[in-house]
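name: query_chain
kind: protein
chains: 1
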Amino acid sequence: MGSMGDKKRVFIVDDHSVVRQGLSQFINSEADIEVCGEAEDANEAIKAIDRIMPDIILVDISLKGANGIELTKAIKARFNLPVLILSMLDEHIYAERAIKAGAKGYIMKSESIEKVIEALRDILAGKIFLSSTLKETLLNKLLLDPADRGDSPIDSLTNRELEVFRLIGEGLSTRHIAGDLLLSIKTIETYRERIKKKLNLHNSDELVQYAIQWRLDEGK
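structure:
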């Protein structure tokens, strides 16, 4: 990893240009870190990271095409660079998946920009960054006997299946989901069938009802 001067270089991946611009403005106002590049999707990010080799990558979990967790796996496998996941999605559902994928931290978009800066610095210093609430939750889970953890059926879904399930819960059609994830309609239909099987649901109506209720519970 290289840096210009003493500043550590941050690469931002987010499909909203306004978000990237806002983050860049705040990060570049700091004395010890600076933004060295940005991308709006995983493919663009991988090409740019290969060229720039930043010190840390800030990744939005909800990207079109390959999502932030899949991108994190690719970054870890190809570059072994630290990743901080920035997300609007419930940390109690997604953070553990992100860490298992290789992320060094997970922070909610509702947090202040100062907290994001703190998270970047912690990770650059070799630490893992998670909210205090999430740290306690994960530690308690580790201390439980596996038989007593009471894992949800949702935990059996792969990261991509969970993403499709979440979008179903948002009321999106198969065609719309395929467009958002840059996948074929047939592929989304295959994911729907796998999800139904794993969740022991008998038809599409049950799947939609289950997904909508899960999204409502997730938002509480």
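note: The chain has ten helices and five strands.
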